[in-house]
Amino acid sequence: MIKVNKEIKLFGLDLSIFWQELVFAFRQMLDWPVLSALKAQAPVALLDEKGQWLIYKTPSAKPVQADAKKAQKIKFQAVALPSDIVLEHAFSLPQLERPEALRAISLEARRISPFAPDQTLWVIAPSTIQAHSKTRIFLTSKTHVQDYLGKLKTDAKFAKPLDQIEVWIKDKTQAPAVLQGYGETRRHRYEKLQKLLLGGVLLLVGALVVAHLLTPTLQLRLRAIDAVQQYQVLSAKTTPLLQQRDDVLKKKEQVAFIEQINGNPAHILETFDLITKTLPDDAYLQSLQILPSETDKAIKVSMSGQANNAAELMQRLGEHPSLRDVKAPAAATKPPGASKETFVIEFLLLPASPQQTSAFK
């Protein structure tokens, strides 16, 4: 038979043992006063075989002796079976996983039990399921337990119904063992509910802490989003105003140019006179624009029309002393079948003296 090695090792160290030790250490930490509330375990009032009341905050905690009046106020109560109706058995287990170990212990309990199978009750002593060490179990019968509980009911030891009373077996060296099938399910439901409530409270507190930490960031983000939205609204409102302002500036320039023309109409007359004398007889204009220059007091002239030779016309204009920056924004074209070239010419007209104008005639 092939033996399967289930050990998890790293650099020769058994990680499964390390994990078990880590879980054990964490469980021990939960017994600290600061962290004990996280276990959400309810206290139990235990009536031992001597008739004394002991209060356990947790089954593994050290009990505190109390009187009957104080014990009756505890929500959950238990009874410790006397040693004369409990059998103890110790044996060794090989290296097994916990589910396999529990099955082995169950088989061993049924094997050694002197009671009928339907009457046998057994429980494992706490913290004794370990490989190569003694595992201890306690055995008793349902009849012995019912008889003992009936005796306690006759003696009026408990104010609660017997089906709500837990049955424990005290161990001299370890924490008490809880016998399954009695009132412990009621306590387990209560503890589960308490854990859920505690988890809900912790989640709520965590959510509040996260919300508190994120609130400044969210406020800044909301302010940024609101600022962008307000900017967009303001931009939408001011766009028509900006357009109107541009229109006003353009009209203002036009008014200033008109005022300049009205103040010195000689420039307009000089422009018409210069163009009339410069254009050859075979050329004519289709459009003429006279605008103020953006850089100086010169007049910007743009004209388009047709001529037999547009290049010669540009040369004549470029030789005039009162003209500057003579250029053609587009090349002259001659449509198919046409006898003349179509041109567009722009230039700046400088204020010129009558002598310069007459010299070019």
Question: Can you tell me about this structure?
Answer:
It is rod-shaped and about 145 Å long. It is built from eight helices and 15 strands. The protein is α+β, with helices and mostly antiparallel strands and 361 residues long. Among the domains are: 42-182, Nucleotidyltransferase, domain 5 (2-Layer Sandwich), CATH 3.30.420; 266-359, Alpha-Beta Plaits. Residues 353-361 have low confidence and may be disordered. The chain has a six-stranded mixed beta sheet. A four-stranded antiparallel beta sheet has the order 12-13-15-14, covered by helices on one side. A hairpin with a 7-residue loop joins strand 4 (53-56) and strand 5. Helices cover 43% and strands 22% of the residues.
